[in-house]
Amino acid sequence: MIHETIYLYEGRTDVNLTTYVLSDSGEMLTGKKRPAVLICPGGAYLACSDREAEPIAMAFATMGYHAFVLRYSVYGGEAFDNHFVGMTPREECRYPAPMQEIGLAMFYIKEHAKEWLVDADKVAICGFSAGAHNCAMYATHWHMPVITDFLGKDKELFRPAACILAYCISDYVYMKEHADRHIGARELFDAANLSYLGSKEVSKEQLMEVSPARFVTAETPPTFLWATAEDEVVPVQHSIRMAHALADEGVPFELHIFEEGRHGLSLATQASSNCKAQINPDAAKWVGLAEAWLHKRFSIKFED
Hints:
Helix content: 25-40%
Number of helices: 10
Mean pLDDT: 92
Structural class: alpha/beta
Number of strands: 8
Strand order of the largest sheet: 1-2-4-3-5-6-7-8
Shape: globular
Oligomer: single chain
Largest sheet: 8 strands, mixed
Strand content: 15-25%
Distance between the termini: 27 Å
Low-confidence stretches: none
Order of helices and strands: EEEHEHHEHHEHHHEHEH
């Protein structure tokens, strides 16, 4: 395996791409290219969760995919420890930077596709919570000037072949309505807004601008969504709204909602957990379901 960390900006180490590129040999693909998955961990745009990084990459690697973990621009302070007191927004971390960095990572992967034996036409994106929001934003904007003008390349270089969204935030207007009804959710929502949008007080127009369910078009890639009905941090309605938008535009999708399970389950197995509550055998089925869904689009063509 080629395992290295690549820094996507000169002079910054916080935005980086970690590779989990599978080694080839004469006993396996003998030089054939493999599909790949680019992973965006969650963390409310305040951090990038380790639980939704390497464990996810290893899961996709066992399926036969090259995997990459993108640590995109986030607040990066001690917000979780001091209850968001004294947070100062960082200009370089605001929208649309996190979404544009998916484009940077996508271009880097495709630029090195020959070296790494990556099938450049089969690179999926996969995100969790805020990372899923970032992926959903990219999935609905990859062909727009906010990406193409920023990177100065042809849009086809940035096309994601598929999108996997785990407990995704898809509608910030609805998220505000939820936060207004729940005191604990409001604190986290305000902190995320400060990091991602630069202010706790944002207009409805700003919230609509970062609501990917409102931007789904026929250019949005096939999408796999999963969530839990018990999630109190990111209500399951977000996944339902995204699925509704995909259905309206005729975009192929698959939606799985598990009855039980807290927010941030990741793999929902001991491989990604630090406590018993993060293990849920039912929700853990999403991995096999996603593998079957990807296989319909990404299967390697073996000779008889």
